[in-house]
């Protein structure tokens, strides 16, 4: 999916869009004329001209269909030979078409719809949303055509960004038809829901002050148990490349026992044997902070850190959960809980998050979400992320092709940067490090900071090779992406 838009991008659900329409001072007929005009302009671009081209419009019974009919008339005036059919009509198989305009249903789709068969490999322009796609979730509500392009009105709709949306909507254009969405969904940091863009990174990425010292952006990573040291190393490398001034790593204790590394060596608890940590990393034993069980009972020395990242190669078990819960209570710094820290905590972990005053960030993939919440996220990822944020009082970052970041106050940010390159082991550890660095550097709106960090992470991946991309390639690309995006 490509975006033709830059800057703060509101994202609306169909219900919110309906409320915007209802509150509009202009007559629907005027809005339909503008929407139809925008569709016609976009169609002419796809057709590469007007005179002699052939287009077919599938027009439904509502306003989406009305947009299509207006576009059909405007295209005829430009010499395009246009045919129109109802949403249920078949398209003549022998029609040598240059374009099909899908104006069957938009935000008003209320039951499954399967469009007629397309005559061959003809490009499709979808009006507002491909018909048969749920405008909120991007899930199937029928069997939509795969559009070459989608022209949507006033603002992006969440269904274009989530679920099957990115795969089925093609290139997305937002047409201004004179409607303001501000009254319904707010502006700036207060926007209910927004897509993060490159412009947002430039505006919001926290910068180091000219008189900064290293402790002003220190990150403390707790992870890298024997056999899993690579995870903490990726997080540490990423935090450094994203701008952390000081990176501390502490392995979790393996109290009263010795454990085996994956190459079969016995190791003592609390160390990082053979960890390929960046040379700048400071390794500190957790036991040195005074706990009888090897986990800290005070973090006085570490209160100087701006953010903790807990979970990357942490291992699981009751002792680990006890330790994480204690750290959450002890530290006044921002905390990112990732990977193993999310695996088995459930209600106890969520309660511990809810009691914190400082920022807490939870970064689950779907399996970790289920472990935390006792149920899978389901199709409605906006609602799933919001439920986790509300339950935990934390910022909930739900990983996926489009990352959904929700705050306990109901605001949501989306990032669709990155692609399947990121579907490889260790990229989540890198993301945790980038978020940790961003939180340690900044004092801005935490939701924006976390979402912008996810966007940087996705953008960085696009600088890597399409084949054979490894998480270890990513931290350096994060540094390069930040150089590009933050000026
Ligand atoms: N502000 C804007 O963005 C504007 C949007 N416009 C366009 O209007 C549609 C929304 O219009 P609405 O009439 O509410 O909905 P639809 O056109 O999607 O269709 C509703 C219509 O269809 C019936 N229906 C729903 N599902 C099915 C189905 N599977 N089979 C048969 N019939 C179905 C339903 O009962 C209704 O009767 C928006 O997407 C924009 O394209 C305006 O043009 C300008 C302002």
What does this structure look like?
The structure is a single chain. Strand 18 (395-398) and strand 19 form a beta hairpin. The protein folds into 2 domains: 3-184, YjeF N-terminal domain (Rossmann fold); 199-485, Ribokinase (UDP-N-acetylmuramoyl-L-alanine:D-glutamate ligase, 3-Layer(aba) Sandwich). The strands form 3 sheets. The chain has a 12-stranded mixed β-sheet with strand order 7-1-9-20-19-18-17-16-15-10-11-14. A 6-stranded parallel β-sheet has the order 3-2-4-5-6-8, covered by helices on one side. The longest helix has 20 residues, at 28-47. Helix 8 crosses helix 14 (427-441). The chain is built from 16 helices and 20 strands. Mean pLDDT is 90; it is low at 1-6 and 255-271. The protein is α/β, with parallel strands linked by helices. The radius of gyration is 25 Å and the shape is elongated. Bound molecules: ligand LP7C6HRI. Ligand LP7C6HRI binds at residues 17, 20-21, 31-32, 35, 60-67, 105-113, 127-128, 153-154, 179.
Which secondary structure elements does this structure contain, and how are they paired or packed?
Blueprint: E1 9-12, H1 14-23, H2 28-47, E2 54-59, H3 63-77, E3 81-86, E4 99-103, E5 124-127, E6 149-153, E7 156-157, H4 158-161, H5 165-168, E8 171-175, H6 182-185, E9 193-195, H7 198-204, E10 218-222, H8 229-241, E11 246-250, E12 258-260, E13 266-268, E14 282-283, E15 307-310, H9 318-330, E16 334-337, H10 340-343, H11 346-354, E17 360-362, H12 366-373, H13 381-392, E18 395-398, E19 403-406, E20 412-415, H14 427-441, H15 446-461, H16 474-485
Parallel strand pairs: 1-7, 2-3, 2-4, 4-5, 5-6, 6-8, 9-20, 10-11, 10-15, 11-14, 15-16, 16-17, 17-18
Antiparallel strand pairs: 1-9, 12-13, 18-19, 19-20
Helix pairs in contact: 2-3, 7-15, 8-14, 8-16, 9-11, 14-15, 15-16
The protein binds ligand LP7C6HRI.
């Amino acid at each position: 999916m490509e975006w033709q838009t830059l800057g703060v991008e509101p994202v609306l659900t169909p219900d919110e869009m309906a409320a915007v329409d209802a509150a509009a001072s202009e007559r629907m007929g005027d809005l339909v004329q503008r929407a139809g005009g925008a569709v016609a302009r976009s169609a002419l671009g796809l057709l590469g001209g007007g005179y002699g081209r052939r287009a077919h419009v599938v027009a439904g019974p509502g306003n989406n269909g009305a947009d299509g009919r207006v576009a059909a008339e405007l295209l005829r005036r430009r010499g395009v030979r246009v045919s129109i059919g109802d949403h249920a009509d078949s398209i003549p198989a022998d029609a040598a078409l240059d374009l099909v305009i899908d104006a069957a249903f938009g935000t008003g789709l209320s039951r499954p719809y399967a469009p007629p068969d397309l005559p061959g490999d003809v490009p499709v322009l979808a009006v507002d949303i491909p018909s048969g796609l749920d405008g909120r979730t991007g899930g199937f509500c029928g069997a939509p055509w795969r559009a070459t392009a989608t022209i949507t009105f006033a603002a992006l709709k969440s269904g274009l960004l989530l679920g099957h949306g990115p795969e089925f909507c093609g290139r997305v254009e937002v047409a201004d038809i004179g409607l303001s969405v501000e009254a319904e969904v707010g502006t700036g940091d207060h926007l209910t829901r927004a897509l993060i863009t490159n412009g947002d990174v430039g505006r919001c990425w926290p910068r180091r002050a000219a008189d900064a010292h290293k402790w002003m952006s220190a990150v403390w990573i707790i992870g890298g148990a024997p056999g899993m040291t690579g995870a903490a190393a990726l997080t540490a490398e990423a935090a450094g490349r994203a701008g952390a001034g000081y990176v501390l790593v502490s392995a979790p204790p393996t109290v009263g026992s010795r454990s085996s590394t994956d190459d079969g060596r016995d190791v003592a608890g609390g160390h990082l044997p053979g960890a390929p940590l960046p040379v700048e990393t400071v390794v500190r034993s957790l036991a040195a902070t005074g706990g009888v069980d090897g986990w800290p009972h005070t973090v006085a020395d570490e209160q100087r850190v701006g953010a903790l990242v807990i979970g990357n190669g942490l291992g699981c078990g009751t002792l680990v959960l006890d330790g994480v819960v204690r750290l959450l209570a002890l530290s006044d710094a921002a905390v990112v809980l990732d990977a193993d820290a999310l695996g088995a905590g459930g209600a106890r972990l969520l309660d511990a998050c809810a009691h914190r005053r400082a920022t807490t960030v939870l970064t689950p993939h779907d399996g970790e979400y289920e472990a935390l919440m006792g149920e899978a996220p389901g199709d409605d990822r906006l609602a799933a992320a919001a439920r986790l944020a509300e339950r935990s009082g934390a910022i909930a970052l739900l990983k996926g092709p489009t990352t959904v970041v929700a705050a306990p106050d109901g605001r949501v940010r989306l990032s669709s940067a990155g692609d399947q390159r990121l579907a490889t082991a260790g990229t989540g550890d890198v993301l945790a490090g980038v978020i940790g660095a961003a939180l340690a550097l900044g004092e801005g709106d935490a939701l924006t900071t976390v979402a912008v960090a996810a966007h940087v992470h996705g953008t960085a991946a696009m600088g890597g090779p399409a084949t054979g991309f490894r998480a270890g390639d990513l931290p350096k690309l994060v540094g390069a992406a930040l150089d590009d995006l933050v000026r």
